[in-house]
Input
Amino acid sequence: MSASTLRIALVGNPNCGKTALFNQLTGGRQKVANYAGVTVERKEGRFTAPSGRVLQILDLPGTYSLDANSPDEQITRDVCAGNYPGEMVPDLIVCVADATNLRLHLRFVLEVKRLGRPVVLALNMMDTARQRGIVIDVPELQRRLGLPVVETIAVKRGGARALIERVDGEVPTAAPAQADDAASRADLHAQVRELLAATVTMPRATAEIDDALDRWTLHPVFGLAILAVVMFLVFQAVYSIGKPMTDAIAEVFDWLGGHAATLMPAGPLQSLVTDGLFGGLGTVLGFLPEILVLFLFIIVLEESGYLPRAAFLLDRLMLSVGLTGRSFIPLLSSFACAIPGIMGTRSITDPRDRITTILIAPLMTCSARLPVYALLIGAFIPIRYVFGVFNLQGVVLFALYLAGILGAMLVGWVMKHIRRDKSEHALLMELPSYRMPKLRDVGIGLYERGMIFLKRLTGVILGLTVLMWFLSTFPGAPEGATLPAIDYSFAGYIGRGLQYIFAPIGFNWQISLALIPAFAARETAVAALATVYLVGGEAAGGLGHALAGQISLASALSLLVWFAYAPQCMSTLAIIKRETDSWRNVAISFGYMFVMAYTASFIVYQVARMLA
Amino acid sequence: MRLSDLPKGAPAVVDRVHDAHAVDPIAQRLRDLGFVDGEPVRVVAIGPMGGDPVLIQIGFTRFALRRAEAARVGVRTELAA
Output
């Protein structure tokens, strides 16, 4: 039966090193997708065993119990039980347990065994267990459990050899299935105690190094200081490594576009290639360096075990606005860009907390808002000192950041109160041992995130970019036109139409028009304003001057507030669709941000006009 | 005594987990995680804001529990036991 395929399901508690083992077994040959209809990631990989048999491995979401509390745990339960629609019944379940944490993990092993399917137990992290002086009588454990037990070291080359040999051999016979009820569940703990007493010698309950590190990282003062330093370094890296690469990519695509333009005759086709295609690709790829740098840090923080510590420190703060400690890092990432922030919400276990975090992430002031803020603040806010020390321009910028955060808190609070499901959100978060992140696992994680962004988004964003180009190019300006070409285009008509909607918040038709390309990428609003105000290629100072003469201070303030809250950047909306697999959430995001931006801008405009 | 009232560092043993309401998945999950009769527990750290959450050592594992979660766990201190 060498040519047949063996389907293996990989299960285990969170933090058992299951994904590292999966990476070890399958290398880069992984397929990452979502389970149909839910936002749970489905990872499958395959490899050919020495016998020539193909082993197809499904990496199921980690869970503490088959008594599922969340969608990902339900998937693990149903696939293991063989009744998940559209998923094949696994021929073999490989249950992974952390050898240094058997008190917790063996209970799950016993629970899986009761399903009555063939099970192999992989005792992972055996190297760490030996270092800590933990002695496990494997033959005795195997005898008592009644299922094959192999030792693995997921983070070491060749560390899965024993497991490969075992699964490549004969499929073990299954233990008889057992009913699952409260009494038998309670009994599992007694069985674990017996097993541990008979087979495991543990010199101390925790690793000394963990205790020592936690004394500092969880300290009420030093812990928060360490967290602040870590976050500061992450942001420094995003701006000093990611930002120059983003700018370089934009320049390369400008150059490519310009080069392509010289090769073809002037006209709509040339404009499509240079502005639509190269411009759009440049915008999409320009996000990539910042996303990768942010994810590098998020993955390293997660793999090292620090992320749950940060969540521990901040849980109370985040809970007060209806979130969880785990929301903090994704929201902080959103200050660079909401896209990695939203992708980073996968570490949030409660689906309700995750949705709330996704919905408010775009309110964090991302780096793409800065050019717009810089232009408007520079043009309208005088350099004046408040209380002798604070530059008024800086105060306004700070106020805009604060407006985003306060708005997010408000939305989180409102969501908490309008949600129908008012049941308690659990924290119940394990703080795993500290681990040195492994290059391969970080690399594979980064590659996956990068590919998700490129594959899922490039099509959508490129399509919309071309649509934007089409709207602002056609129909072309008539002969002898005196105004810029964009005035005669569909975008021009739309802008003129939109001004009736936006007049109450002080936007004239030129600003309304600039909002259309801003939907592709916020920073393009500056270029669009430059085009309509006939400033052309002049520097932003020139544009600022032109703006100051054309629109009132009230309108400018209103526009600033609009940019703080508006549903902008279709890339963000596209990633919300991808991460929540729901157009409803996209509609909710767009809708609430539009209402919020409109209301806030309306108040600011009307008040500013009254005061003026 | 409740686990949420246990002072930091004091050794205790789990008595039982109480359901906060009729169907309480959080209580069930606590039991699954090992909060069962006779299991030694200890508060190893408390959160910087209002002492919430608390970090509990149970078995070989550390769990962060919010106070409302820790309040479900009845414990007895070594001396009383």
Summary: Chain A touches chain B at residues 64-65, 67, 69, 100-104, 107, 185-186, 189, 202, 205-206, 210, 214, 218, 220-221, 223-224, 308, 311-313, 315-317, 319, 325, 424, 426-431 (CB under 8 Å).
